[in-house]
User: What shape does this take?
Amino acid sequence: MVFDRYTPLSRNEEIARRTLTPLTFRRGQQILAATRRAFREQPIDLTKEKFAVYVPGGAPPKNGYGLLVFIAPWPEATRPQMWRPSLSRHGLIFVSAANSGNEVKVHDRRLPLALLAYENVRARYPIDPKRVYVGGLSGGSRVAEITALAYPDVFRGALLNAGSDPIGGEAGIYLPPAELFGKFQETKLVYVTGQGDELNLHDDEISRASMRDWCVFNIEVRDARKLGHEPLDAPSLARALDALERPSAVDAGELARCNARLQRELASKLAAAEAAIAHGDGDGARAQLKAIDAHYGGLAAPAILELDARIAAP
Assistant: This one.
């Protein structure tokens, strides 16, 4: 299919706001303003793009179809031939963009193509917003994780197959603004990697540990027996989709205690940076804000922006 509908969610400025740290986003805005430029409106020209779409036969489910936006590591649009029985059983539409593989950039193509796939399928078919998911394989799975973290108001679950990264900190995916991260903490994450894919099984463990550190608890792990680093076979996909669709609840008390810990830690670091500013230690304050920005990402706003402005003020 060729799509024609755009969404404000895929605007370059909105992608940057959600995926960059607060200070990086501000610096970008300042550079553009100083050179009298602006963000390009949309990174994708849909007239040049093609998408593969599978729609289950028969009448749509009572509350609308579910939707799985799939990000592949290869350039071809994925056609889910052997996955159709499981997709049909769950009433899931499947959509995949062409030219969205590992060889192209994440923020310029892969992420906006996933958002535009969602927008155009949503416009054409009745979709249950509670059953909109993003998934991928290998490098595409890592992009699916970035997408789920940045757009938890769109994607309510993520299917991470043979590729995942930690979140937060300079070694992980930057955290989005606080209101979005709160939604991400409700997102269902399903990790499924071939039992012979030792490297990515290890990466999955690191990713899940970082999720717990950042109070993300809605996680399930499924086996992909007898598989290596390869697409899921039909039985493995069936188990993964069952897990993705199964209702689950996070312990509200545990989540509240964990989030309170994060807020205490962040407040302490911001207070230390503010004290450095008060004592005239601009260089020390800048170094502290840089570290806070990288580690906490959007959770540090707006306080980090206010402190940054105080350093820059004459």
Notes: Residues 252-278 form the longest helix (27 residues). The mean pLDDT is 97. DSSP finds eleven helices and seven strands in the chain. The CA atoms of residues 70 and 171 lie 25 Å apart.
